[in-house]
Amino acid sequence: MIYIAIDNSSITAKKMVQLIEEMPFATVYREFNKTTKKAFKEIEEGKVIKADSVKGLLAKLKQKDA
Question: What is the pTM of this model?
């Protein structure tokens, strides 16, 4: 699953959202669920691990557990 944040204040962005809504394989959620709200809070607090690749992420996770 992929989450995309779109600032839909422009006409072009609104059209893009409408296009996505019409696609049978996509769902547009207008409100954040509890999990998404928690994730954004963790990002704001700097509680995330960033990596350029899966290999890099695994290495950082191993360092964190050590």
Answer: 0.48
- From residue 19, alpha-carbon distances to 2, 15, 25, 42 in Å are 16, 6, 12, 31
Sign of CA dihedral 44, 47, 50, 54: negative
Residue 21, pLDDT score: 94
Supply the DSSP string of 11-48, one letter for each residue.
HHHHHHHHHHHHSTT----SS--HHHHHHHHHHHTT--
Q: Each residue of 5-36: pLDDT tens digit?
A: 888 899 999 999 999 999 999 999 888 889 88
